[in-house]
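REQUEST FORM: STRUCTURE PREDICTION
Request ID: SP-0412
Submitted by: Lab K.M.
Chain count: 1
Length (residues): 89
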Amino acid sequence: MLAVFAAFETDVRRERQLEGIAMAKRQGVYQGGKPRLDRQRVQELVAGGARPAAIARELGMARSSVYRLLEEAGSSRARRGRSERRRAA
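STATUS: Completed
RESULT:
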């Protein structure tokens, strides 16, 4: 019986929270999080010839994040394999 009341209270609390978030969005208060990755800087470093590992170290982010940003931007460098880069050099 206590589990039923706990589930009911959880549902009511969730509804109130969603209503509050919707109201905050309408008022322009709830705008989401700030961008944490500097996409522009990553593109500048790639254009300068920096490799993803070096970019990650310089900007203090994970290498996987660098690859994801490059893939989002459609950069061909993100898709080229290491051996292919060696042949191109």
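NOTES: The mean pLDDT is 85.
Reviewed by: T.R.
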